């Protein structure tokens, strides 16, 4: 394997490394974050995530409880949807879906989507309960229909402590392993070539 193939492999891995960073940057432009210091009306625990987003003609505010979700621990998502001009709350139903947002999903090995539920307006709030059975990064998608259009907002959710060896570590480790294997193969081919040359000389 020559240097061109090594450069191509390194380029592919660098693109894979940059993908999650670019995705985070794109999400940051879409969601207007807010520090989660306030409490809701029926909880004395701050939410793990609180933010605001503008989707179409609607102003969306969301909160995810508890502050530090754990596996097999019940949690709740509170969603508020108001029209920007009229300030009236949306009165339709909201569907909640979830999927794995970890490293396997980034490389297309885990794209399973599960339905959390469909919730009606309850005092101008959409409340969706959840329970995750394993540590990891998850994405909750809340969708609703308004004005003949479908609107979707993605809410990132971390369950359990963050992994000490994240996606960047995996990519760097994989890059080192691949470069080591390529180097070993290259050396073996070089040695085989030298042995063949020596053998040809002796036979002559």
Can you describe this structure?
The chain folds into 2 domains: 1-30 and 164-204; 31-159, Macroglobulin (MG2) domain (Immunoglobulin-like, Sandwich). Residues 18-42 have low confidence and may be disordered. The strands form 2 sheets. It has a 5-stranded antiparallel β-sheet with strand order 1-2-3-4-7, with helices on one face. Strands 6-5-8-9 form a 4-stranded antiparallel β-sheet, with no helix packed on it. It is elongated. Helix 1 packs antiparallel against helix 3 (167-203). The protein is α+β, with helices and mostly antiparallel strands and 204 residues long. The chain has helices spanning 3-30, 103-106, 167-203; strands at residues 32-33, 49-55, 58-65, 75-83, 94-100, 113-119, 126-130, 136-146, 149-159. It has 3 helices and 9 strands, in the order αβββββαββββα. It starts with a helix and ends with a helix. Strand 2 and strand 3 (58-65) form a beta hairpin.
Write a brief caption for the model.
The protein has 204 residues and is α+β, with helices and mostly antiparallel strands.
Instruction: Give the CATH superfamily of the largest domain.
Output: Macroglobulin (MG2) domain
Tally of helical runs = 3
Question: Architecture of the largest domain in CATH?
Answer: Sandwich
Helix content: 25-40%
CATH class of the largest domain: Mainly Beta
Widest sheet: strand order? 1-2-3-4-7
CATH topology (level 3) name of the largest domain: Immunoglobulin-like
Bulk shape: elongated
β-strand percent reads 25-35%
Q: Pick out the low-confidence regions.
A: 18-42
